Amino acid sequence: MAKTLVIVESPAKAKSISKFLSKNYLVKASMGHLRDLPKSQIGVDIDRNFEPKYIAIRGRGDLVKDLKASAKAADKVLLASDPDREGEAIAWHLMHLLGLDPETSARVEFHEITKPTILNAVKNARKVDMDLVNAQQARRVLDRLVGYKLSPLLWRKVKKGLSAGRVQSVAVRIICDREEEIRGFEPEEYWTLEASLVYAGGIFTAKLLHKNGKKLTITGRDQMDGVLSDLRSAVFRVAEVKTKEKRRQPAPPFTTSSLQQEAYRKLNYSPKKTMMLAQQLYEGVDLGKNGTVGLITYMRTDSVRIAETAQEEAKAYILENHGDPYYPPETRIFTSKGRAQEAHEAIRPTSVLRTPDAVKPYLGRDLLKLYRLIWDRFVASQMSAAVYDTLTVDIQADNYLFRANASSVKFPGYLAVYEESLDEPEKQENPESSLKGNLEANQQLHLESLQERQHFTEPPPRFTEASLVRKMEEEGIGRPSTYAPTIETIQTRGYVVKEEKKLVPTELGEIIVTLLKEHFPDIVDLEFTANMEEKLDSIEDGKVDWKQVIGEFYGPFAETLEIAEQTIGKIKVQDEVSDEVCELCGRNMVIKMGRFGKFLACPGFPDCRNARPLLEEIGVNCPKCGEKLVARRSKKGRKFYGCSKYPECDFIAWEKPAPYPCPECGGAMVEKNSKRSRKYVCTNKDCRHIEELKDNE
Question: What is the C-alpha to C-alpha distance for residues 74 and 2, in angstroms, rounded to an integer?
Fold first, then answer.
């Protein structure tokens, strides 16, 4: 019988898909790209209009031979690489390697790995989309020209082993610019005043806002004392009571960017880990008797579109499990921002009927957490709005105005399933119950106390991996597939390190950015890089020739490169000298930056190759032996705390230990931080003593 060869990218996807197709189909994996630009040379013929030179990837010879033999034996070949630019380019390279006619309709796309989708896709093959391929070629050639022309310059002028990438350099600049803001920030003093007021229904707090009808800003102790003096004899009366019903709409289902951000906030997953787990959920999970099924749609997308069939299934599920009030009057239609790939869908479960609890026996802990997050977000996106009763009370005290706010959930709507995390949680002045009761205009209130507080404005926060993803998306830097690898690369190169979950530029990173800003301003310019992404989109739309875009970029770039070669002098990155003495040769060791952070090395290299970890004391003694505790890093770069006398003492903790033992059981306590609080928690499971910490502790 006729055989059809289907080539996908990964063995996991091949295994999943083969179970949905008949014996007339043979499914094999290409393991990603089989042709690429050579690593040993630039691989782009600049004199021949930037013609790329593709070669078979070393080590893949046997795989190529096997695929060629299978293609020759098959009556038909279908190329089912991932449904994006990269996947389209892989399909195009496969056509060349296998000797297929480029006019053949051999390209199929699987936006989800489910039986109906697979069976429908293999019946609707199309030609390889050369506009998509050329957009990918343009990106690849651009990145190669920047990397292979600019990196050697950095080797000669700074030090060997450096690299400069078109997108990664902009990401490092964003982090360095934020660090400059923080260093140059000058805090400003301001004060707030809250009144605790008593009425028949209880006690509540109100914040001072206005004086004589104008917003009041208090900037010093003397000014605050004057306000307090004015209020000592003031009568507090209710000026106005406003009640309002407020509706809060659900967030749309996930895109790549929003998934990475929310997984970081809710699950503490890095973008890299999130995408690795999402790939597994997309490619397929063995569900026992139900076979291997892809649990989510394709995970590299900037679209929030939802297929009608998925919406109908979600509607039926919500009505059956939550009831009519929980489904909105009209089906929700979400609109993507900017230029999204509307051929794609948002990230959603392939079937809402595969609930997290139903698939729990087949998923590991991390996979289940991410699947539950995606499932909850999708279901909530199709549900009714949450309804709040809000209460605003204005209180007049002579010529001063105080205001109190409170709200309560009248109808939970989508909150019954899911609530989106926020970087800055909404502040609620009063508990829901404290303002319940009869409050009327002109009602007199009893002042129990006034609480003045001194504050200082704070610098902008350093980026986390999640907030950097959001910034890159807002600025149009990169695309969904590039966020995670870019963040990984800038850390691997030693331009950025992660400290307490924040991204901090190294001295090397700042030197590189300063050099690029001075001599190659376009390379690290956010607007220029975003405009280049738009040009790549125009190539995808067939509106502009890809080699024309490369030519327009390369001419000015080559001129700048030549000038920089002549004008940039040798830049010496000075190593920080430590007090530690090398036990082999007696020199003072220097602090160097490695893949997993700082370490001590002998400056006598290569004659003396001594190196050891840099022990960062944290001011806490080991609860096991009494010696100093130090911060260390695991092989994966994760920070932990261990005894300085290791291996003699094997105490370790992933959270920072407290400087004193638990007052109740004498056990070790560790510091746990969240956006809303800091606390010490006893590690003894039978005790679990908790101490709340103030910001200055």
Answer: 7
Query: Using CB atoms within 10 A of its CB, is residue 555 exposed (0-12), middle (13-18) or buried (19+)?
Result: exposed
Q: What percent of the chain has pLDDT over 90?
A: 57
Label the pairing between strands 25-29 and 4-8.
Answer: parallel
Query: Residue 260 corresponds to which tokens in the numbers above?
Result: 């990475």
Cβ neighbourhood burial of 258 (10 Å; 0-12, 13-18, 19+) = buried
Percent of the chain as helix, strand, coil, to the nearest 5: 35, 25, 40
Amino acid at 140: R
Residue 603 CB: number of other CB atoms within 10 A?
Answer: 14
Banded model confidence at residue 478, pLDDT cuts 50, 70, 90: confident
pTM: 0.81
pLDDT at residue 634 greater than cutoff 80: no
Question: Which residues have C-beta within 8 Å of that of residue 322, sequence separation ≥ 6?
Answer: 383, 416
Question: Which backbone phi and psi does 22 adopt, to 5 degrees?
Answer: -75, 175
Class of the CATH domain delimited by 4-128: alpha beta
Residues 6+ positions from 324 with CB-CB distance below 8 Å: none
Domain spans in the chain, listed from the N-terminal domain onward: 4-128, 138-184+461-567, 189-249+386-456, 256-381, 575-614
Assess contact for 368 and 360: CB atoms under 8 A.
yes
- Residue 346, CA distances (Å) to 109, 124, 338, 463, 654 in order: 16, 22, 15, 26, 35
CA–CA distance, 194 with 207 (Å, rounded to integer): 4
Lowest mean pLDDT segment, chosen from 263-277, 300-314, 463-477, 634-648? 634-648
Spatial contact of 490 and 133, defined as CB atoms under 8 Å apart: no
Tell me if residue 298 is catalytic.
yes
Q: For 116-167, what is each residue's pLDDT tens digit?
A: 999 999 999 999 999 999 999 999 999 999 989 988 888 888 877 777 888 9
Calpha distance 105→586 (Å, rounded): 71
User: How are beta strands 4-8 and 76-79 bridged, if at all?
Assistant: parallel
Please check whether residue 274 is in contact with residue 263, taking contact to mean a CB–CB distance below 8 angstroms: yes
Catalytic residue among 269, 298, 327, 483: 298
Superfamily of domain 256-381: Topoisomerase I, domain 4 (1.10.290.10)
Which amino acid is it at 234? A
The radius of gyration of the chain from alpha carbons, rounded to an integer in Å, stands at: 30
Give 593-596 contacts, CB < 8 A, sequence gap 24+: 593/494, 593/497, 593/506, 593/507, 593/508, 594/494, 595/492, 595/494, 595/637, 596/633, 596/634, 596/635, 596/637
Question: Does 437 score more than 70 pLDDT?
Answer: no
- For 213-250, what is each residue's pLDDT tens digit? 999 999 999 999 999 999 988 999 999 999 899 999 99
The superfamily CATH assigns to domain 138-184+461-567 is: Topoisomerase I, domain 2 (1.10.460.10)
